[in-house]
Structures are given as structure tokens and as C-alpha cells.
């Protein structure tokens, strides 16, 4: 599929300055997008060095062969290799609720092309989108332990898993919801197989919402209708109109590597390997990504949203060192040939934690909706095994049950 950039003029953003070659994630036709079949020629390799502004192929000077009666000239010492250029300083927070002009599409941000006709035909021929009977047999064993939210103060960070990619994050005295989905079912998907871990009535006042992208299992209109319309919402570039049409009045759209600030808490929007689509005509018309929440005291929580594995994790870790907790997806990964570009499997999520330099990981995006073919309990067993095999401390894997909480002192 031919990638294209929008024709609308867009302002120069921190993303433009920080990523000279910006590429992005992959799509599908359902909330759990299928994986592309090949990578574009412009894909940035995972270990690509940052641009230092110097010519990496600076030629070594070749000396003429000396005559027999002339002394050989002293060799010219090789120039010292320049140090790797660090990322520029973090962007200054943008004004809350700022109205901006964006490109018509963000196809140029994809890190893999959308599936072509051959991939779609193969999926129709052999792709399984649901586990078999044996794979569903463990639904009663899925961990579900709802409990009251922990008490916290302004200097404490706590997370509670409501299910799927929905978290109640308490940070810097704020209560922040991530991709809130409290509905029993979403479009095109069977009803949730575990109840919501936090009753809506048990939530404290919601101070902010962050949205990773517009797929139905991450952007749920019935849930968002429950919020006061003056709730601050932080969304990807191009998605603000969706909220303003629903009369939300404090909508902040950000590009990759941009930030905004609310009550001393910093909200940075960062890249992900994914895509966006909500209707037949809006493929990649809005951006996608994750969020780094930084408390005034310096604690950092990274919410990945929905993403495949790739080079962005190490870049996020270098730009935001000292991530205390990474909320990473581990489910909706089978069949792998179809979903690998858009959804991490458990082993990749563990690698992503290491790439990020995060101290702890909390798995998500599993055990709530049946979006793909792996057995429902497999993501949990595989992530535990991968964590142990990586030699990581067991107490740093926060494999919470739905409704479970942990506090970062």
C-alpha cells in the first residue's frame, strides 16, 4: 500500500525536531489490527544511531607510496570519534487546549505498511481470530480480584488495573484514567470475559484522561460520556475533533515527543508501533502512541497503549531515563504473522521493559476481551516465564489481577 503524507501544512513540532526520520506502526481492520506483511524501505533499524550531524563515511586519507630513498611520512592519526549525540532537551509543555492544524493523514508514521490484498486473503483463508474450545476453557481461572483503591498522597504513585488497557493511575495528587473502557462489549468483539476491576461509582474524581489511539477497544464513547465535559483529556494529534464534537472543552492534542502539564504532572506523548482507524474513511487520520507521566517528585510511569515491538522502546528509554513502571501490552498476538507488527507478545514485552530501562513492568491488554487466537491464560504464563528467563527480580513484575493495585513508594 502506498504511503503518503497529508497536504495540509503542519506546525513545526518537537516530534519534527527529535525524530529526523519518523516512521510508525501497523494496522488491521478490527480493534486488534492485523500485522503488515513487509516493512517499508524507510523503516529505521532498531539499533540505528542518532544523527550526529557528521558524515559517517568520512574517508580516511590515502597516502602516496613513498619512494625508496624517502622516509615514509608519519601516518595521520584517525580523528577522535565524536560522542553519540544525546536527545535534545525535553520539549517545553504546550498550552492546554491549544487549537492546531495537523496533516490530513499520518501514514508516513507507520513502521510497517498496512496489510495488502494477499495478506487479507491469507487471513480470510487460514487466520483464526478466536481461541478454540481448549483455549477458552481457562476463562474461570483468569485472575480477578477487585478491591478498594489504595489511599495515596501527592507524593505517592499507585496503579490499579481496571482491565484491558484501562488503568487508574494516581500520580502527583491526580487521578488519571488511561484508555478507559468500562463497557461490557465493544464493536465487533464478544463481551468481556472478566468484569471491570473498578466500579465506576468507586472512582475518585477523575482529573485527567489519556488516550493512546482511536481503536474501539481503547476509545470507548459510552465510557467517556460518563465524564464531566470539562475533564482534561490528552489525545494524539488529529483526534481532538472527536472529543470536541462530544462537547469536551479541555482537549489537548500532542504530536510525538511533545508534552503538556497539569497541576505539576507532565504528560509526554511518545511513539508506538501501531496505527489508527475508526471508520471506513479515516485510516491513519489521527496519530497513535503512548504516554510518559512524570510526577513533580520525579517518578515516571510509562503507558504504552497498544504497540508492537521495535526501536521506539530504546529511544523512549533514552529520552526519559528512570522509568519506574512500564504498563505494557502482552496479549492479542496470535496469529503472529498477522499481528506481530502491532501487538507485542509476552517475550517482546519483557524485552521492551529492558529496552526502556524501566525498573518494573505491569502487563495489560490481556484477559479482558478476546481479540485473537491465543489461549486466554497463555499471555500470563508466558510473561512470567520470560521474566524469569531474563533474570529479572520477581518482585518487579507486577502481574496484577483485574482490579488489583500496587503502590510505588
> Count the helices. How many?
9
Largest sheet data: 7 strands, mixed
- Regions with little confidence, pLDDT below 50 for 5+ residues: 1-79
State mean pLDDT (0 to 100 scale).
84
Approximate shape: globular
Spatial gap, N to C terminus: 48 Å
Q: What proportion strand?
A: 15-25%
H/E topology pattern? HHHEEEEHEHEEEEEHEHHEHE
> Helix share of residues?
10-25%
Q: How many DSSP-defined strands?
A: 13
Secondary-structure content class: alpha/beta
> Strand arrangement, largest sheet?
6-5-4-3-2-1-13
Radius of gyration, taken over Cα atoms and rounded to an integer in Å: 23 Å
Structure description:
This protein is α/β, with parallel strands linked by helices and 409 residues long. It is 15% helix and 15% strand. It has 9 helices and 13 strands. A 7-stranded mixed sheet has the order 6-5-4-3-2-1-13. Strand 9 and strand 10 form a beta hairpin. Helix 8 packs across helix 9. The N terminus is likely disordered.
Give me the secondary-structure topology:
Elements: H1 14-18, H2 117-126, H3 133-136, E1 157-163, E2 166-171, E3 174-178, E4 208-210, H4 221-224, E5 233-236, H5 240-244, E6 251-254, E7 258-262, E8 265-270, E9 290-294, E10 300-303, H6 312-319, E11 325-329, H7 336-339, H8 346-356, E12 361-364, H9 378-389, E13 405-408
Parallel strand pairs: 3-4, 4-5, 5-6, 10-11, 11-12
Antiparallel strand pairs: 1-2, 1-13, 2-3, 7-8, 8-9, 9-10
Helix pairs in contact: 6-8, 8-9
